[in-house]
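Our working data are protein records whose layout never changes between entries. Instead of coordinates, the fold is spelled out as a row of discrete tokens. Here is such a record, shown just as it appears in the course material:
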Amino acid sequence: MRLWSVHPRYLDRQALTACWREGLLAQAVLRGATRGYTQHPQLERFRAQPAPLQAVGAYLLGVADEAAARGYRFDRTRICQLPDGPLALSLETGQLDYEWGHLMRKLELRSPETAARWAQVVRPEPHPLFALVEGPVAGWERPGR
């Protein structure tokens, strides 16, 4: 499961659709609707929120917005809870930088044209759910995987 912290605009088609599916899986885990992935480390940042389902709903909404901008139709009715108002989770610069390097390595292999498009970006924008703060790679991240 990879719930990218980078803005969905940087994801190629494969990563965008996988992010949607994995976000829906994260939502199912947080709802208690599945027995798999219950201890997945990427869920820690959502579980730490006062309203985890609203947080993952906001995350999914950001992915669906990007999909719509590209002409894809992700079924927004599958998002079980949207936030009551503006919501922002903290994202450390170290985590964003780590994920950016990880994504660029994937894109170079799978979608070289997309990698070339973003090659000059030093630090990407985060997903709209996240507010960037100085800090290290997240403790739940598993570097090298």
In short: The mean pLDDT is 94. Residues 8 and 63 are 6 Å apart (CA to CA).
